[in-house]
Amino acid sequence: MKNEKIPYKIYLQESEMPKSWYNMRADMKKKPAPLLNPGTKEPMKAEELSAVFCDELVAQELDDTTPYIEIPEEIRGFYKMYRPSPLVRAYCLEEKLGTPAKIYYKFEGNNTSGSHKLNSAIAQAYYAKKQGLKGVTTETGAGQWGTALSMACSYFGLDCKVFMVKCSYEQKPFRREVMRTYGATVTPSPSETTNIGKKILAEHPGTTGSLGCAISEAVEVAVGSEGYRYVLGSVLNQVLLHQSVIGLETKTALDKYGIKPDMIIGCAGGGSNLGGLIAPFMGEKLRGEADYRIIAVEPASCPSFTRGIYAYDFCDTGMVCPLAKMYTLGSDFIPSANHAGGLRYHGMSSTLSELYDQKLMEAVSVKQTDVFEAAEYFARVEGILPAPESSHAIRVAIDEALKCKATGEEKTIVFGLTGTGYFDMVAYEKFHDGEMSDTIPTDEDLAVARAKLPNMD
Amino acid sequence: MKNEKIPYKIYLQESEMPKSWYNMRADMKKKPAPLLNPGTKEPMKAEELSAVFCDELVAQELDDTTPYIEIPEEIRGFYKMYRPSPLVRAYCLEEKLGTPAKIYYKFEGNNTSGSHKLNSAIAQAYYAKKQGLKGVTTETGAGQWGTALSMACSYFGLDCKVFMVKCSYEQKPFRREVMRTYGATVTPSPSETTNIGKKILAEHPGTTGSLGCAISEAVEVAVGSEGYRYVLGSVLNQVLLHQSVIGLETKTALDKYGIKPDMIIGCAGGGSNLGGLIAPFMGEKLRGEADYRIIAVEPASCPSFTRGIYAYDFCDTGMVCPLAKMYTLGSDFIPSANHAGGLRYHGMSSTLSELYDQKLMEAVSVKQTDVFEAAEYFARVEGILPAPESSHAIRVAIDEALKCKATGEEKTIVFGLTGTGYFDMVAYEKFHDGEMSDTIPTDEDLAVARAKLPNMD
Questions:
Q1: Which of A240, A290, B295, B335 fits B301 for a cystine, CB–CB 3.0-4.6 Å?
Q2: Each residue of A275-333: pLDDT tens digit?
Q3: In chain A, which residues have their Cβ closer than 8 Å to the Cβ of B111?
């Protein structure tokens, strides 16, 4: 097929879909730092993690040596309902930009959750079901993860309790309604239903919540309820493992047409999409088989890679989770209230943090006004209204394509289009009305948030 | 390929996409009745229609003899951005229902407009551009058509003025915002910007508008503005022609795997989706080459096929449009305010009306509470949150599959899943909260509406 004209959309056959996930950690010489028990500062053991997570997921979390882990048949069956996702050649965008660059994007938005989150949700629900659990708890910010998990739980007949960051709960009633369609219970966080929620409400009356706080509530409920475990949609190694299906499909599609990318660009909040998209490419890089520029894009208002520090930190506000070594802004960090573009977690996947620290990938931060400008441009040219999160990657892909225009280089750019923005129209409206602004944390803001890092002496 | 296992989703290659639209009328022995000039009651001539519609679209509207009309290269290019759409084998639905029936659906919701409407919008925008126009005007109810047209106009650099039925404008601010993202101007209808709008507001202060009224406003603005024409998203022959791309792709996909459907089911408001989906199948039926059951599904609260009469009627409230012979409830008919499920036009495509009158297709009406029950069931099982409109077809597909379960028959059912329900969560919320009810027009209601039919003596 190498000389065929490349279609607008490359769809793999079902038979070409990956049968195993790829675990980047297996090919890393220096492994990501382990999760630590916040009390003893010793690496978390499987037994300890099993109180919070499903057993099989704990095994995946801790496994940094097995490169390929088989995708169970049931999960592959579910994947076939909405995957393979298309790898799109952005012919229209290229033409409009007048760039010699060749631009591809892997589009993960063609499912009702509206994003890539479903790839890990269905895996986590499957293992919970297999373990005979009654249900799972989780947090959600913008709502993509909560929606994905609701769909996955509905499929396997599991109960699903979602703690939704209060400001999102109020601003996005339709997201909440989609979760209800799939039978989930959605509680605004912080809530009076948990001890940590009550404590936070008492300390910060009127708070609109944060991801870190919603995580604490979800964990508390999971640990305190018979037959429940907690599940998380990003940051964790297991999540990156499941999301590798994005990168594996992308690589198979590129290989089919003999295309070798020069750079791979993805947005990064906790790292689930980026870690999945880059997995097989990073694998080649780690094994010395190929080289690629890999670029993480984050919001200037929540710049964990570009302005955070690499240290052990709390994963949640309530400090009930294990400590993770990661690029972090401090677990108290909350992006400015005018930030609409998602990707608002204070830390970053330990695996990606270690790869970044080893200089195997780059990071860049972008302002949300520039992100929405790129989002609207892309919507008009490529016909897909992108999620604000995904639009971070669009912004940098366009910037790189314009550099190619200036230099005349015919580079091949691949980026991850993680989802659609149909539930983000309040943010688009702000942008259209000229009411969107950028608030970038000062060095002082960051120093204040950082002061609460755990003492590791 | 005939013996291969049928995949969950059949995607055609780009090279297999239709190169021509199919015009059912060419194969009809008795043709649909012509549009009439409301003054003279004589068939509308091309010159008369050209004041309202683009020239090439007028030609398509009047052409009832050419079976295949080539799809221009530029439109095929745009189609490739979001087509071919998948023909999905509903394995999960079949299993959940425990039916021996084989169920397929053609899914048209994987584009930002969220529905099949884009198939005709891009064609109409293309011909407007080719004619050197500045822009187009239209009406939109639920918003799918307005969104689709905004996208198409943005692609070709045309101005787009949308009159949106006021109650939708207020209930669906996000739909409006998507249209703004694509640069369209959206005005709630009735408005003070047109004579007919002012008149209707004076006669019915506080009215929340109707499709018929929004059409009148859009036509008035088109006719009164230099370089503008009016475009319509349903009912017209030209729209059914463009939408035949749905049926042609469906038929190619089925043929590839040697599948012959027993019945084809589609929702029907004005007939755009149904007319497109059934086109090549009806063609075979008209030519005596094959037989299929073809079922139109409409809301019990707006039952133009099942309880309307076949007569010449006004297409709009302001009576500025040509008269069309169709199954109609009368141009003043407005479905009950509690009707949330779309498909609220008072009439039906003349072509489909004639086919129905010739008993070449069936029609059934369903209650919206039953429709939303089917919608939620489908969302949970197949992972796609359907539009209320599309869910009318789901309801009947499920009912037919359950009949097969009772009889043991292995029938093959194909239905049209026209779009997604992401902007319809207010209706879903009503359903979840048990606040959805059914108001079915009484015979008296219908008699009142019918009294205003034009005098054809």
A1: B335
A2: 999 999 999 999 999 999 999 999 999 999 999 999 999 998 888 889 999 999 998 89
A3: 383-384
Q: How is B347-368 classified by DSSP, letter by letter?
A: S--HHHHHHHHTTSSEEEEE-H
Pick the CATH number of A9-16+82-114+243-450 from 3.30.230.10, 3.30.70.100, 3.30.720.210, 3.40.50.1100: 3.40.50.1100
Residue B224's contacts (CB-CB under 8 Å, 6 or more residues apart) are none
Rg, C-alpha atoms of chain B: 21
Q: What are the residue boundaries of the structural domains of chain B, listed by start? A: 9-16+82-114+243-450, 22-70+117-230
B182/A379 touch (CB, cutoff 8 Å), yes or no: yes
Confidence of residue B1 (pLDDT cuts 50, 70, 90): very low
Residue A54: both structure tokens together: 């499903």
- What is the rounded distance in angstroms from the CA atom of residue A376 to the CA atom of residue A395? 11
- The rounded distance, in Å, linking the Cα atoms of B1 and B292 is 23
Number of separate helices (H) and strands (E) present in chain A:
18, 15
- Which one of B8, B14, B151 has the shortest CB-CB distance to A14? B8
CATH number of A22-70+117-230: 3.40.50.1100
Of A177, A383, A432, the CB nearest to B81: A383
Please judge whether A82 and B383 are an interchain contact, meaning their C-beta atoms are less than 8 angstroms apart. yes
Does A8 sit within 8 Å of B383, measured CB to CB?
A: no
CA distances from B378 to B89, B372, B385, B394 (A): 13, 10, 7, 8
What DSSP letter does each residue of A351-395 carry, written as one string?
A: HHHHHHHTTSSEEEEE-HHHHHHHHHHHHHHHS--B-HHHHHHHH
Bridge-partner residues for A107, per DSSP?
A417
Contact B197, B217 (CB under 8 A): yes
For A81, which of B177, B382, B428 is closest by C-beta distance?
B382
In whole angstroms, give the CA distance from residue A260 to residue A239. 26
ipTM: 0.93
User: In which order are the strands placed within the sheet that holds B135-140?
Assistant: B185-189, B159-165, B135-140, B228-230
Please state the pTM of the whole predicted model. Answer: 0.95
> By C-alpha distance, which of A142, A274, A268 is closest to A214?
A142
* CB atoms A155 and B380 under 8 Å: yes
